[in-house]
Design a protein that fits this description.
Layout (H helix, E strand, L loop, with lengths): L1 E7 L3 H9 L2 H5 L3 E8 L5 H9 L2 E4 L4 H11 L4 E4 L5 E2 L3 H14 L7 E9 L3 H17 L8 E4 H6 L9 H9 L4 E11 L2
Parallel strand pairs: 1-2, 1-4, 2-3, 6-8
Antiparallel strand pairs: 4-7, 5-8, 6-7
Helix pairs in contact: 1-3
């Protein structure tokens, strides 16, 4: 159903929880394949890919080019872009399946994309205030952070021109998707509070 693309740059320590969170999606038949597109900074990413049953692609140092390379190699019609430090939280397979089923039933695969709610890892007031600020920013601008992940059909991705070059490729793609076409799912993406 979906191909998961994760651009890495030697973040092997944070990558393992990200991959572990995809297991429920694979068990539910949602995740067809996982592609780790690495800049080749460390050999350990290739070893993790092999151990986890992921496809490893050696990519350029440019983050946008790695995302584009992963999308080009993906075999599924639906693409899910994740950062190696994000951990999907409980319930995400149900929400993704519901979004995809609804988009396909209504013929909106080339008009709708989805992202996850942001949650920050940490205790106390500071992470909760940053989460509230992210919700407010999304309400005002309609643009989530790229670290929140993106689920998009290949037709819409290609029509928008995919990821461009540079470190801000994810932000620019969200801007091209636009507020009216981006659905915020109920499930969360847990990010490090850094």
């Amino acid at each position: 159903m979906i191909s998961v693309v994760i651009p890495t740059h030697g973040q092997e320590g944070r990558l393992i929880p990200t991959l572990a969170a995809l297991v429920p999606g694979a068990a539910a038949g949602i995740v067809r394949e996982v592609l780790l597109v690495d800049s080749g900074a460390h050999e350990s990413v290739a070893e993790i890919a092999d151990a986890a049953g992921c496809e490893y692609l050696h990519g350029p140092s440019d983050p946008g080019a790695r995302l584009r390379q992963g999308a080009a190699a993906a075999r599924a019609a639906w693409l899910m872009f994740l950062e190696p430090s994000g951990v999907l939280q409980e319930g995400w397979p149900r929400d993704v399946r519901a979004f995809i089923d609804q988009a396909e039933r209504s013929g909106a695969t080339d008009r709708r994309a989805a992202t996850f709610r942001m949650a920050l890892d940490g205790f106390g007031v500071r992470p909760r205030l940053r989460e509230a600020a992210a919700v407010a920013r999304h309400a005002l601008t309609g643009r989530p952070r790229p670290e929140q992940g993106l689920i998009i059909h290949r037709r819409l991705y290609d029509a928008l021109g995919g990821h461009g070059a540079g470190a801000q490729a994810g932000r620019r793609l969200f801007a091209r998707i636009g507020r009216g076409r981006l659905l915020l799912l109920r499930s969360q993406m847990l990010l490090p509070d850094a």
